[in-house]
Design goal:
Order of helices and strands: H
Strand content: under 5%
Largest sheet: none
Helix content: over 70%
Number of helices: 1
Shape: rod-shaped
Distance between the termini: 117 Å
Mean pLDDT: 86
């Protein structure tokens, strides 16, 4: 009978340890989930910022190309025929 009581006490203490380990693992999982959520949020913010900068870059790049095209179409002030600047041939003397 004494042996059965010892076995029962041992099982109860092991059961308590297992429950404590499970609770600790759940707590750690909750902390990791919280960290993952924060990282995912930061990643989404960075992704949004990158997309915004890419859109701004496309706008700046397009307007720069439009300005270059406009400048190339301007009349060459040194041309007797009023040719655009882009038709001017430069000669090196």
């Amino acid at each position: 009978m004494l042996n059965n009581n010892i076995d029962l006490q041992l099982l109860r203490s092991l059961n308590g340890l297992v429950i404590d380990l499970i609770e600790e693992e759940r707590r750690q999982n909750a902390v990791q989930d919280s960290r993952l959520d924060a990282i995912e949020h930061q990643f989404q913010e960075l992704e949004d910022r990158i997309n915004s900068l890419a859109a701004e870059f496309r706008i700046v790049n397009r307007s720069q190309a439009e300005k270059i095209a406009e400048l190339e179409c301007l009349q060459d002030p040194y041309s007797p025929d009023g040719d655009p600047i882009s038709n001017r041939s430069y000669s090196v003397s």
